[in-house]
Design brief:
The protein is mostly helical. It is 75% helix and 0% strand. The protein has eight helices and no strands. Helix 3 packs across helix 7. The longest helix has 22 residues.
Amino acid sequence: MATLRDTMQKLVNLSEDAKLDIILENCQELMPTLRKMDSKTHGLVFLAAIMSTAITADGKLHVNEAAIFRAIMKMVGVEMTDEEVVKMIVSMGKQGTYDAVKALANALDTNKKANLVMMVAGICSLDDRVSPEELSYIDDLI
């Protein structure tokens, strides 16, 4: 049976386009549920929290991670400058946000939870490696 590390290594080995497809597909599947759960911000706070925690799980901000954050926010209708992206990621990449995303994952049905985990895993793989901290975070979400 494949371990989480084995599965993540397969994801790391994919092309950047394949990783982006996984991230975007799972984001699109998850967004209707996030919108229903948070009608005030149409799920955008949840989405930003999910992406920020995935990006900061290893304590580093890779250029590809910031780019996917910006692209996904644009996909849902929010234009952000590079500076705004970095500020948002840094402000949301805190322990309280990690705890909130873990609670969110536990509140989702199995399919939506899988979408969240795959989105996080895809984001964590964008820098072509997965750290022990990222593996631990993904494992916590599962």
